[in-house]
Amino acid sequence: MAPWRAMSDPIPLDLAHLRKSCAHCSLQQLCLPAGIDADELRRLDEIVKLRRPTQRNERLFRIADPLVSLYIARDGAFKTVSISEQGEEQIVGFHLPGELIGLDALGQGVHRCEAIALTNANVCEVPLAQLTSVAAQLPRLQQQLLRVIGQGMGLDQDHLNMLVKRQANERIALFLHGLGERYQLIGQSALQFKLPMSREDIANYLGLALETVSRGFTRLQEDGVISVHGRLIGISDRPHLNRLAHVEEPAATPLRRIGG
Amino acid sequence: MAPWRAMSDPIPLDLAHLRKSCAHCSLQQLCLPAGIDADELRRLDEIVKLRRPTQRNERLFRIADPLVSLYIARDGAFKTVSISEQGEEQIVGFHLPGELIGLDALGQGVHRCEAIALTNANVCEVPLAQLTSVAAQLPRLQQQLLRVIGQGMGLDQDHLNMLVKRQANERIALFLHGLGERYQLIGQSALQFKLPMSREDIANYLGLALETVSRGFTRLQEDGVISVHGRLIGISDRPHLNRLAHVEEPAATPLRRIGG
DNA sequence: CGCAAGATTGAAACGTATCAAGTTGGGTGG
DNA sequence: CCACCCAACTTGATACGTTTCAATCTTGCG
Hints:
By secondary structure, chain A is of the alpha+beta class. Helix content of chain A is 37%, strand content 18%. Chain A has 2 domains: 15-158, Jelly Rolls, CATH 2.60.120.10; 164-245, Arc Repressor Mutant, subunit A, CATH 1.10.10.
């Protein structure tokens, strides 16, 4: 595949930032520690490892790997991919910073997906055995763990609802809408962002042909809803986009993500 | 809708059977208690309630109900249904005996689905607060709980893979295949069973028009793969069905379900 | 500059949804 | 017991959207 380390891509490694504990992490409230107190946070911090920077196309785990840790990106983006019996790849979810990666293995103790970096990234690693044993002692952490897992299931359901009985343009609008919301959640612009994934990845995720995604983007641009420059997306008419996605648009948009 | 209690449907209530604890339940190894020891089983048994028999079309919980308990059918069948922003129903999963119901609410503490009985049924109820507090003390139960939850997520993924990039006949074959396996798992015939759900439910679940499901059944019957008499399904040529579903068919079929 | 991968655009073929009749079977009431 | 009814299911004809195949265009990168 692609080289693990592209020469033109010097790693902007900020050790000081990497060493920060959960307590100082800007994602704290969006991540596993959300809602737990200072003492508990210290216990959690003790078991969280900081991995070396991850290169584009690098894998956190592969299919059939035993479940060891859960992962969370601090920055960058990942996709999780399952492979059908016929060898076709299916993207199960996209993961932005703060979103737990690795829950696919909870059932069998063995991963059924690969987690592949879409960009260079920095990742926290949480050994599951330690996490569960700490959680057994800290009811609030246990509760939060279940909540995070449950949210993951909710996202799978959102993904499913996006695929069933919705046609191409609706899926694409919903995808862009959700992505914008997720970027907003982590403090970036909901109206202008760079897609970390290819058209092919989007198509795969949405259950469409990549040509259909391309046509969809073009159509949205012609209609003045978005602007497209390669992977750079600008949302020009958010209400219109929401209408196409059939999403209500009250002031406070409910917590929602697209990729699980 | 249909009457809560049809006159022609006297409830064959077997109190002796209902009073059985998990320890004596035939589903024990397929259910929450799988793999935990006798002491732990006793602790679990203490918190499991047996609900009065549930009528066809009765709901275990509704959308927006707070999460109180998880449910498991001892017999009968359920569907869980979510409702989109436009008011369209989407069937998220079918639940046969031994399969946990109610995990949809883990994320927000509030149900995002309704659980509706497809048939008359007997149901065990497990209050979640008690379950988690017991699980915190019993590592094996904690582990088993996570495993069951993880399996639920796995099933959602199977459902998703069934919908994406597969065409109608393949989805239908896969659906029947999976249903057969699940019946086999609970000690019934994999080759002959009565569908607990309507064609409309199947179509909704598979993301198809109900006419397409009907045609699919007819086609499978014409090809000598199955026999259809209303809701009675016989599988005449299992290898052929598996081939249509693109499922490998080694001697030992992997643990798999269709509805999550 | 020039290649290769990714993205866009076009035309035709296919599969499924939709609309519209029929058909079957279980339940009800005369 | 039969006629009727209604809901569930089946079957047929047409319309639509998406896939597919193919060609062209763009972009990043060596």
